[in-house]
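[Discussion] Sanity-checking designs against the backbone

I'm trying to build intuition for which residues belong where. Below is a structure token string of 224 positions. I'd appreciate it if someone posts a full sequence so I can compare it with mine line by line.
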């Protein structure tokens, strides 16, 4: 899978991808992430990519030309399955969207800054708008990093134990069950006996029950 990202702060993103689990995904050739600097696509002086908004009001808006130059130039090489704009007014990102996007071949992520991007880019180039939560970040980069991480770890072969992504919280709309490792007893706190029984079908049953209990307690909204 290929994910291209357009950003005005590419350095911020590069350091993230250089150290995450996605490094392994990249090394294995399962995921290619390319970051493009929007300022490389502007014809305005001093790398300008934003300007005051028409109609007045505080805050700069990212201009249409640099964005369209960048998008169209990248589209010459790649027919993207989705062109995604990260924005607080987009559809809320969740595991289901991560699953769906992980099945695509190529994505282009656009990171906004300031007051946002010229609406005409959204109207004519963006195929999907995604928010990572109900709060406003200073730019879309952290959102893009969240998407790449959540999607990247779902690609077959990225995680060592492939089943572990399927057992994550939110798959099936349930939170993951509690997990334990050595030692079997610490300060008198014991690991649930069932996990030491070796009876795999009983263990799976117990884990499923625990998932349901945990979801009822912490995130009842997921069960609605
Ligand atoms: N850009 C600014 N805030 C954002 C958010 N909550 N989600 C995605 N992109 C953003």
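Best answer:
Here's mine. Compare freely.
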């Amino acid at each position: 899978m290929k994910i291209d990202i357009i950003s005005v702060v590419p350095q911020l993103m590069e350091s993230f991808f250089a150290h995450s689990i996605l490094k392994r995904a990249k090394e294995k050739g399962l995921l290619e992430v390319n970051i493009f600097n929007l300022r490389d696509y502007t014809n305005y002086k001093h790398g300008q990519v934003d300007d005051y908004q028409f109609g007045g009001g505080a805050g700069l808006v990212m201009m249409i030309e640099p964005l369209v130059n960048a998008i169209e130039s990248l589209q010459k090489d790649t027919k993207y399955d989705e062109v995604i704009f990260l924005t607080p007014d987009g559809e809320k990102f969740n595991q289901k969207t991560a699953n769906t996007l992980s099945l695509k071949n190529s994505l282009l992520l656009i990171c906004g800054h300031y007051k946002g991007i010229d609406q005409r880019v959204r109207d004519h180039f963006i195929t999907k708008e995604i928010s990572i939560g109900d709060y406003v970040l200073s730019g879309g980069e952290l959102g893009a990093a969240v998407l790449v991480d959540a999607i990247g770890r779902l690609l077959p072969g990225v995680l060592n134990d492939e089943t572990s992504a399927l057992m994550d919280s939110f798959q099936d709309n349930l939170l993951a069950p509690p997990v334990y490792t050595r030692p079997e007893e610490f300060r008198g706190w014991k690991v649930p006996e069932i996990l030491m029984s070796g009876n795999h079908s009983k263990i799976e049953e117990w884990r499923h029950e625990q998932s349901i209990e945990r979801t009822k307690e912490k995130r009842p909204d997921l069960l609605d």
